[in-house]
Amino acid sequence: MADATVRRPARTTAVRAGAAASLAAAADLVLRGCRGVAWYVRDLMGDNAYRVYLEHHAAHHGPEHPPMTEREFWRQRMDEQDRNPGARCC
What we know:
Layout: H1 13-45, H2 49-60, H3 70-83
């Protein structure tokens, strides 16, 4: 009787490369998603407020009016929030 063993073809390099590419694409997608969430949280919490202030100041005010220092900016921002709490709970 003939040998009934069926041999599977060896995985080719192309198949392995395709799997690696798919894994890399999935990892990139997850990383992009995490970066997007981090950006949203930073924006929501106001971490980039000083940078946005500097961009606004540069666009709308000339060099004759120097921008506030970061310390002055945050002090003014906190004072304003204390005067007008808005939707804050505390």
